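Continuing the series of single-chain predictions for the mutant panel. This is the parent chain; the variants come on the following pages.
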Amino acid sequence: MKKFGLGILFIVLFGLTVSSQYIPLMNGYFKSNQFYNPAGAGMKNHMVAYTGLRKQWVRVKGAPSTQMMAFDSPLSKQRFGIGGVYYHDKIGATSTNGLQLNYSYRIRISRKTKLAFGVNAGMENRKFNRSELELINDVDNAFSGQFQNVNKFKLGAGTILYNKTITFGVSVNDLIKEKRFANLLTYFQYTKKINRDWEFAPSILLKANTLQIKQVELATYTSYKEQFLVNLGYRTNGSIIAGLGFKPKSQFLVMYSYDYVAGKLSKYTSGSHELILKYDFVHRYRTSSRLF
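Parent structure:
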């Protein structure tokens, strides 16, 4: 177990050192579109705040853990939107703190459909704590002091086409790249109202970059009376996702997700856990504030 954990840790750290890029993984991306796409800022007709906590690969030493807080709000009769995201991510001996500000502009292309454009800018600080590693060779240049504290400016852009039925978004994160590395994310969701109580929303998320690293996530979200939500999904890294959400109050959503890791890794971890909290700042609850 110890050797396996150290092996995972070394691979992750090596990837961070080579590419200097990493997008924290969160199942709750459909609750915080602006985390991956700045055009998602201000999509609702009121301010929204949310936070997420994720612990990945429980029992694997050095496995990722992520905390995220965010808010967004429309401006000027929903034509403009603003938002902000703070995240803390830790993988092995590397911890990352990031702050991202989003700005969006939307136009109406039909009576029911809008097209939003967004940009973001932010700063990211990555710290490497060498004392958390047990090295065979203490003078290994791969873990020299040059990687101990790195500050980086981030810039991104995206667009989202949406109405009450569909949401389709494309974004590029970290436009300022080293070694021509880029992260492309594409997201599509279709919402079908079965009757006055039930809604069904299948979705697909694709992550890709110039290093040919790709990941696809398929998911379905089913809600009952806009008070209860069930999420089922599959990620091409071998994870099976299950989630349950409910609203103790009309404006407050609590959601828990669990990832079952299939394959060889399942022998060493009990899975991944994630908690999402979301609050809609509206005086009267409206049907436009759907669970998804």
